[in-house]
Amino acid sequence: xxxxxxxxxxxxxxxxxxxxxxxxxxxxxxxxxxxxxxxxxxxxxxxxxxxxxxxxxxxxxxxxxxxxxxxxxxxxxxxxxxxxxxxxxxxxxxxxxxxxxxxxxxxxxxxxxxxxxxxxxxxxxxxxxxxxxxxxxxxxxxxxxxxxxxxxxxxxxxxxxxxxxxxxxxxxxxxxxxxxxxxxxxxxxxxxxxxxxxxxxxxxxxxxxxxxxxxxxxxxxxxxxxxxxxxxxxxxxxxxxxxxxxxxxxxxxxxxxxxxxxxxxxxxxxxxxxxxxxxxxxxxxxxxxxxxxxxxxxxxxxxxxxxxxxxxxxxxxxxxxxxxxxxxxxxxxxxxxxxxxxxxxxxxxxxxxxxxxxx
Length: 359
Prior knowledge:
- The protein has helices spanning 2-21, 38-44, 78-87; strands spanning 29-32, 66-68, 72-75, 91-101, 104-111, 116-119, 127-137, 143-145, 152-157, 162-163, 168-169, 173-175, 178-182, 185-193, 200-208, 213-218, 226-234, 243-251, 260-267, 277-279, 290-293, 301-306, 311-316, 323-326, 339-345, 348-357.
- By secondary structure, it is mainly beta.
- It has 3 domains: 20-157, Immunoglobulins (Immunoglobulin-like, Sandwich), CATH 2.60.40.10; 162-267, Immunoglobulin-like, CATH 2.60.40; 270-357, Immunoglobulin-like (Sandwich), CATH 2.60.40.
- β22 (301-306) and β23 form a beta hairpin.
- The N and C termini lie far apart (113 Å).
């Protein structure tokens, strides 16, 4: 008898220990997403806790596959609910909305005139399901409850995409400390990635110069966690002026990567050019060097004249180089005066450019 009682007591103790140390699997954590509005709390105090749904379910607006950050605002078709209840003589009291993931339920109550709810501090990298229902009072003064709406789901993408350093403008040449491209049709290599809970969806390119400031978007590719693509871009700025190009990417939740930038100039291709291109123009010899670009093959000598036709300086370059450089000094090494100057190719006097010196 004592042995049976001992086994019975031992069994109870083991059961209690198991229950305490190992909670029942599948038990859900339920918590309020925001404080209950006082007017809704007064109604909840008199509405029965257990009710059988008798009213049709509302509908939520579709959720995107990914939502950026840790906050999400969900919406539903409240007007449709109010119209249907009004025609049947019901009074809409309030909405109840819920966000759920794994073992957690986050829920709250919203006034009858509001058609959205914002959930904060949501976890990332996980599918979250949302649904909504409503409470109403019929003509007889009885409380009624609707079915839950069909669920809508979205993943919180908390990590913005990353633009890799391999990205950049293809075919850039550098001379005189300046970066050049031949003709305005350029190509950008874009290498970017996103977390497993997101996908790179769009490339943005911004062109800024003294005559242009515009952003162009490209999305003609399949969104992916990693992209390595070439994007064509046509410069709208005219030749000879500096162009600042910036590029970045967006992911499917519209989060933005850091931007990369480059400052370039462009000049026409050989068959378009019948003159020199000088930049900067005007230029300050105390701060910068004038780069004189030429596409005439084999040319190695250019001459700087003042407006009176006096020779100021002879410039030289290698035959394969595209650029003459002038530091604003004459043959004696003195910085020239402010004013206008002309650079002419030796033996090709029809190819020239005007240079303004402004100290």
